UDP-glucuronate decarboxylase
Amino acid sequence: MAKKRVLITGGAGFLGSHLCDRFIREGYHVIAMDNLITGDLENIEHLFKLPDFEFYHHDVSKFVHVPGELDYILHFASPASPIDYLKIPIQTLKVGSLGTHNLLGLAKAKRARMLIASTSEVYGDPLVHPQREDYWGNVNPVGPRGCYDEAKRFQEAMTMAYHMHHGLETRIVRIFNTYGPRMRLDDGRVLPAFLSQALRREPLSIFGDGSQTRSFCYVDDLVEGIYRLLLSDYHLPVNIGNPSEITIREFAEEICRLTGAELKVEYQPLPKDDPQKRQPDISKAREILGWEPRVDRAEGLKRTLEYFRDKVQVPDRQEA
Ligand SMILES: NC(=O)c1ccc[n+]([C@@H]2O[C@H](COP(=O)([O-])OP(=O)(O)OC[C@H]3O[C@@H](n4cnc5c(N)ncnc54)[C@H](O)[C@@H]3O)[C@@H](O)[C@H]2O)c1
């Protein structure tokens, strides 16, 4: 029997590359598409020798053509960290809107099922805690994060329109902060920033007073949730994330204990519209997908640290 064929946009990025690995392991033919604006071929170079892996260097905001059949499309292309989307806000809006439209058109033409990577950012700075899927969010459309948050909200609306109007099979995953190997050290997110600062024995940068919370999900757990959602028959949004919530200040302490660094912090002003609280309500994922996270933060951070140790230049005398 011919192998099922899956297109993964953003396939050279952090999450996309882990998805490529998973679908290859599951016996699919994988086509990764990426314009490398924030991704890196190093994340997928181990797959290039495989006959069931193809890579297309392409911007999905432009017309997308893929020869042959497709069973699934996973749309993960988009700058994802504030440092990236603040630098390229227009490309961010385009990939969420035009890119999503192009891929929905492709899915319709190929009769493929399409899953989109949405985000906890659709809840903005939430007034409801923890966040359930039926909460509509508190987003500032004209603030600095608007380009990302609104692109993702539009992406969800466009996907639902294709589902309702064309009967397209669609899935929407709302991803909460995820971490693991292949995150970029300089992507500005708190976890790589803290780990690299601690490994270099530099003070950890805390924005605001550190009382804001985040919930971190290990990448393997996220990939498992996405895989189950794709194969499920549920088309409304599903939160995937780890509900274990921690303040940024406590997280700084945890990272220092893990790396053996002395706790030194440097407080900096809180960026505009930075969410105060983040915690997914995962009742739906539990109920519909039988999914919940398995890797706790202690284990996930240990695995991530292994990866970061090789990447961070640590002076000999400061070896962690
Ligand atoms: N990492 C998280 O915690 C998180 C949380 C919520 C949502 N997401 C979503 O998951 C997806 C992947 O995020 P990530 O953390 O892997 O980010 P990433 O930056 O590592 O990966 C994104 C990939 O998309 C590619 N890309 C961007 N614009 C493109 C375009 N126009 N055409 C083709 N490729 C393009 C980039 O080059 C990169 O390889 C994004 O859609 C993001 O919004 C991620």
